[in-house]
């Protein structure tokens, strides 16, 4: 088995590097979209309303599109392909998509109708300003169809991932961001000219961008033999198999949504701009999250499913253990870099137009707190596919509820003293607790990974991080210009970190960068 394991982790790293390249492009475009929002709307009333209005369909998006539904669809489709062949699996996939589209359409219509009540529940403090409340309700209604389109996109992406195609599905969100920018910027001037609230253009861009993201993936699926026909059949056994798989995950992801609800609720009580600062900081953190979380988790799920379906737990343990090291190789330097350079990063990205120095200060303070959670988030994203593959989806659900409890506890203990920073501390503490919970149980079911490799990797990371911090400290004192500091610091420190990992080893500490650079 040992002879096969290097090729397995190389396969995962190769797939992850493809996803990472695409997701990195998408995250950069996502940052550009946030820059557009920051330039035109800063951290004022309209932006606060947009963040809450967008978050409502996003709560359900995380639940259906990027959580339970997408993961269960990949597992069922992969198993169906192995047993009955690709043609029959595609036929069943078409029926399953029809079933879920009908369900999602009903949810979207309900969301549009009940938008005032949902906003009142999530952001009750907005009702103190009637115009802010009205704008939030209107934005929610405009963006609710986004849930339907992005869920369809996630299913298409899952089908393509099962076929070994990772780049285009991951890149599709980049087109969503690009289209949102084009609609938002052009619509801003059109709506302003006619005297309407220009933030509505950004909401329209979100909805239409989700539609484009879904349809750009369909031609590649059709080329592989898939043809979608709307045909509902709720008697299909695979439909109930997916429901059985997603039920505990829905419960678990509902805990994640409860966390988001809690954070939004408390953030809206911290004064105007707090919701926006929190959102801007999280968007910045989303760039490195895309580097390790999305790529590795998407590449791992099919690989671990194959290992465990064949009963090869030894190979699954080896693959999972090495993936943990690969995740840390990206998340640890990202966390240190974001923590040390937070103010420079926010200033360079956002401080222009309506985004003021005060907004930079608060956003960077929140970003520092988020940076502490990056390694833990990365390890959690790597661990969740393992429990999917083991059919123990209740475990991530339990971890999510633990995160809710820790998050709420920390917020209640700190918000009166720290304000919006207390909300950020709650988020970080919850992610840390969830990660430790998943790691302990993953080792229980699979056993501990190879001890020698982990100890050597830990030593390598410690040495590389010390060297990385020294380089950051040196570059920060060379110039007062934040743009020049970032231009010189980021590539130099990244190169230094990779060289140290390459010199000290093992291969898992730098294999991700090796594959990424080749791509």
Query: Rg, please?
Result: 22 Å
What is the multimeric organization of the chains shown?
single chain
Uncertain residue segments: 1-6
Residue share in helix = over 70%
The overall number of domains is 2
Helix and strand run: HHHHHHHHHHHHHHHHHHHHH
Our measurement of the CA-to-CA distance between the termini, rounded to an integer number of angstroms, reads 28 Å
Mean pLDDT: 83
Shape: globular
Polypeptide structure, described:
- With 519 residues, the chain is mostly helical.
- It folds into two domains: 5-449, no CATH class; 450-512.
- The chain contains 21 helices and no strands.
- The chain has helices spanning 5-41, 45-64, 68-84, 86-113, 115-122, 130-143, 145-162, 167-193, 199-215, 218-223, 237-267, 274-309, 313-340, 342-350, 357-371, 374-389, 394-418, 420-446, 451-476, 482-504, 511-518.
- Helix 1 packs parallel to helix 13 (313-340) and helix 5 (115-122) crosses helix 6 (130-143).
- The protein starts with a helix and ends with a helix.
- The model is unreliable at 1-6 (pLDDT under 50).
What is shown here, in short?
The protein is mostly helical and 519 residues long.
Spell out the key features of this protein:
519 residues, mainly alpha, 2 domains, disordered N terminus
Itemize the secondary structure elements and their pairings.
Elements: H1 5-41, H2 45-64, H3 68-84, H4 86-113, H5 115-122, H6 130-143, H7 145-162, H8 167-193, H9 199-215, H10 218-223, H11 237-267, H12 274-309, H13 313-340, H14 342-350, H15 357-371, H16 374-389, H17 394-418, H18 420-446, H19 451-476, H20 482-504, H21 511-518
């Amino acid at each position: 088995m040992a002879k096969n394991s290097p090729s397995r982790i190389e396969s995962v790293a190769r797939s992850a590097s493809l996803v990472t390249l695409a997701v990195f492009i998408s995250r950069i475009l996502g940052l550009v979209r946030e820059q557009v929002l920051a330039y035109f709307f800063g951290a004022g009333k309209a932006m606060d309303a947009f963040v809450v209005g967008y978050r409502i369909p996003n709560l359900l998006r995380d639940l259906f599109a990027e959580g339970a539904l997408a993961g269960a669809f990949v597992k069922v489709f992969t198993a169906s392909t192995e047993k009955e062949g690709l043609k029959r699996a595609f036929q069943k996939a078409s029926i399953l998509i029809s079933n879920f589209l009908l369900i999602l359409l009903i949810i979207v219509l309900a969301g549009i109708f009940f938008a005032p009540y949902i906003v009142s529940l999530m952001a009750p403090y907005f009702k103190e300003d009637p115009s802010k409340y009205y704008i939030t309700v209107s934005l929610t209604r405009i963006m609710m169809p986004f849930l339907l389109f992005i869920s369809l996109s996630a299913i298409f992406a899952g089908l393509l991932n099962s076929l070994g195609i990772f780049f285009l599905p991951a890149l599709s969100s980049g087109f969503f961001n690009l289209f949102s920018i084009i609609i938002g910027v052009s619509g801003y001037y059109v709506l302003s000219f006619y005297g309407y609230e220009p933030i509505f253009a950004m909401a329209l861009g979100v909805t239409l961008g989700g539609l484009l993201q879904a349809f750009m993936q369909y031609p590649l699926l059709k080329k592989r033999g898939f043809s979608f026909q709307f045909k509902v059949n709720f008697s299909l056994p695979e439909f109930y198999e997916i429901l059985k798989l997603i039920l505990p995950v829905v419960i678990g992801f509902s805990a994640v949504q409860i966390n988001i609800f809690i954070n939004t609720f408390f953030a809206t009580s911290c004064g105007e701009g707090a919701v926006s600062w929190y959102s801007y900081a999280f968007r910045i953190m989303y760039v490195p999250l895309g580097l390790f979380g999305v790529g590795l988790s998407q590449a791992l799920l099919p690989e671990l499913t194959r290992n465990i379906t064949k009963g090869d737990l030894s190979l699954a343990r080896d693959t999972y253990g090495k993936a943990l090291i690969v995740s840390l190789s990206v998340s640890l330097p990202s966390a240190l870099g974001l923590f040390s350079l937070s103010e420079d990063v926010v200033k360079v990205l956002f401080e222009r137009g309506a985004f003021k120095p005060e907004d930079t200060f608060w956003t960077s303070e929140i970003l520092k707190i988020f940076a502490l959670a990056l390694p833990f988030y990365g390890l959690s994203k790597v661990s969740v596919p393992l429990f999917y593959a083991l059919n123990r989806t209740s475990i991530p659900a339990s971890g999510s509820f633990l995160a809710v409890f820790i998050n709420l506890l920390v917020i209640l203990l700190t918000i009166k003293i720290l304000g919006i920073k207390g909300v950020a501390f709650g988020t970080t503490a919850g992610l840390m607790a969830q990660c430790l919970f998943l790691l302990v149980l993953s080792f229980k079911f699979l056993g501990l990974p190879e001890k020698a490799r982990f100890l050597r990797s830990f030593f390598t990371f410690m040495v590389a991080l010390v060297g990385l911090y020294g380089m950051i400290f040196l570059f920060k004192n060379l110039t007062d210009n934040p743009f020049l500091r970032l231009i010189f610091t980021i590539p130099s420190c990244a190169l230094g970190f990779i060289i140290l990992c390459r010199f000290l080893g093992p291969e898992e500490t730098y294999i991700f960068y090796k594959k990424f650079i080749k791509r």
